Amino acid sequence: MALTLTETAAERVHNFLAKRGKGIGLRLGVRTSGCSGFMYTVDYADAVEAGDQVFESRGVKLIVAAKSLAFLDGMEVDFVREGLNEGFKFRNPNVKGACGCGESFSV
């Protein structure tokens, strides 16, 4: 089981947490949504809950609930700027298809 951040994403998370003033890392997951089936969730992590798996990449703790592990195995998270937009980009080898708007995916 592996989950990684690019250097750019790790730097962004470090900056977010420093500005926020608290938190132990980033919580990543999936939920049922959209036209393709699943959508990524990203939030600050203030604690590790029962059943969570903790990964560390470039000095950042990545916390994933057990129910999301199979969907995220092998994923790399990047932070990109495209024109006026910026955000996390997910490179997930488990994805078999995505909707046209890019908000949801299928495995």
Automatic annotation (TrEMBL):
Entry's Gene Ontology BP terms: iron-sulfur cluster assembly
Cross-referenced InterPro entries: ATAP, ATAP_core_dom, Fe-S_cluster_asmbl/transfer, FeS_cluster_insertion_CS, HesB-like_dom_sf, IscA_proteobact
GO molecular function per UniProt: 2 iron, 2 sulfur cluster binding; metal ion binding
Cofactor: Fe cation
Keywords tagged on the record: Iron, Metal-binding
Name the UniProt record assigns to this protein: Iron-binding protein IscA
GO cellular component: cytosol
Pfam families (UniProt xref): Fe-S_biosyn
Domain called Core: residue spans: 1-103
Family label: Belongs to the HesB/IscA family.
SUPFAM superfamilies: HesB-like domain
